[in-house]
Amino acid sequence: MGESFYEQLRIDSRFLKTDQRLDTELLDKLILQLNRIYPQILSDKEATRFRDLDVPTCIRVAELLSHLQEKGEEACREFYHALHLHVEDVYFSLPTRLRLRESGDRVSGPIPNPKDRYVLNDRGPVFFISCFSAAVGAALLYYYGESKEVSGSSSALGLAALGLSRKVRDVLIWYTEDGK
User: Fold this and answer.
1) Which of 87, 31, 96 has the alpha carbon at shortest distance from 63?
2) 94: DSSP letter
3) How confident is the model at residue 150 (pLDDT cuts 50, 70, 90)?
4) Helix %, strand %, coil % for the chain, to 5?
5) Dihedral of the alpha carbons of 6, 41, 70, 75, in degrees to the nearest 10
């Protein structure tokens, strides 16, 4: 995005002046956003002038855009911010936004693959099923290990302790010895 917001607003002005989606209500939202949040950009007197319903909307938009261009770069940037907040469909159909989208010039870098975005690990479904089965098996052994009906659960826990770390192995062996 090599162009300044001032230049972008100069390019987008013709589109914004003729776009019918930017009606009176939306223009009032933009003016109020600029007036309330950034009174240094749009004073109360200027806001009431741009919100005058006796003046046609297309003329008010043209006057607002020329006023913002006179105010400078920060005013243009805040106008784009307000436009993005309140009138997103108009914002994304601006000529500068369309050109940016078509050119592929991204500020954030390369476009990520949607599959890569949600990958938690790359080991596959078999790994997930084996881990899930081990967790379910341990839960079942723990749950039914207390009852006398299931025999051999303590020996199974003792065998499961063979491949684990020292602390886990000590806990499992303690559990199997405690049950006897």
Assistant:
1) 31
2) S
3) very low
4) 70, 0, 30
5) 0
Rounded-to-integer distance, Cα 176 and Cα 147, Å = 13
- pTM, whole model, 2 decimals? 0.54
Which one, of 16, 26, 48, lies nearest residue 35 by Cα?
Answer: 48
Q: Write the DSSP symbol of residue 56.
A: -
Q: Are 157 and 176 in contact (CB under 8 A)?
A: yes
CA gap 19, 30 in Å, rounded: 15
CA-wise closest residue to 160 among 151, 146, 170: 170
Task: Show Cβ contacts of residue 120 under 8 Å, excluding neighbours closer than 6 positions.
Answer: none
Q: Which of 26, 72, 20 is nearest to 50 (CA)?
A: 26
39-56: average pLDDT: 89
Contacts of 93 (CB under 8 A, 6+ apart): 15, 19
Paired tokens of 95: 């000529």
